[in-house]
Fold:
Amino acid sequence: MKDWQDSYDIVEQIPHYIRLESHNDECFIGTCPFCKAGPTTGHTPTLQIDAKHQTWWCSYCEQGGDLIQFAVKFVNQGDTSRK
Ligand SMILES: [Zn+2]
Structure:
């Protein structure tokens, strides 16, 4: 299981969770699944994914981390919403 992160590119994995709206060279933009600030709430998408550093950051709810943290948060959020 070592080098897990090396074999999973954040910009290839995050689209499994959310749709990425746009990108330039090394920064992808999408709607944050945690605060859901985005076109539906009158905001421009606030989730930024840094391909170079393999990290993500939402400028609206001020959360960020790596791919694993994103996946864990996403799954936990799903569990909460089903209760
Ligand atoms: Zn957010």
Q: What stands out?
A: The pocket of zinc ion is lined by residues 32, 34-35, 37, 46, 58, 60-61, 63 (CB under 6 Å). The chain has one domain: 18-76. The radius of gyration is 13 Å.
